[in-house]
Amino acid sequence: MFNLFEMDGPFYRAMAIIADFMIVNFLFIITALPIFTLGAALSALYGVLLNYDVNREENIFVCYTRTFKQNWKQSTVMNLLILLISSVLITNIMLYPIYQGVFKPLVNSALIIISIIIFLFSTLIYPYFAKFHDSMRNASKNVLKMIADNIFRTLSIACISVVPIGIMLVSAELLLLGLYFFLFIGFSLVGYMNARLLNQIFNKYLNHSQ
Hints:
Helices cover 80% and strands 0% of the residues.
């Protein structure tokens, strides 16, 4: 007779997956707390989640720390560059209302387009570092090409990342609930949903290179 709670049953497997996600979530929060290590932490997060469906037997801690160390330099430099560019964009957006030049509509359009490109770029670059061994220059060019070739999947990834934050901002109760959600499992769960789409993008290029 089928036993729901046997060691190989669906309940045990579900609990094991939840435990894995909570461990990854904890490791991500700890390593991302210094803002300058956020890039390396994101690469490590996706280093685990991109291969989770095919390699669940590997030790989560070992996989995470290995990917974190491997991508530390590239991901940290990229993170600082993105933070710098984002700071410039935010400054220009804040100053935009007082700009009275004839090119104001053009400036507005440029700020929106550049902001979208930077955000989409940041959603793919750290998973790219986790999946491929490449220089920063080649990685940047390849990620921009991937975005252009897979715009709908990239937009879906961006939406999955942003929607939970938007829901949290609806009310104080949802904000508190969302904070608990991300504290325990949110980052890894959102990352896993993104990883399913990211693998669809990356595998096309892996198969092509083979």
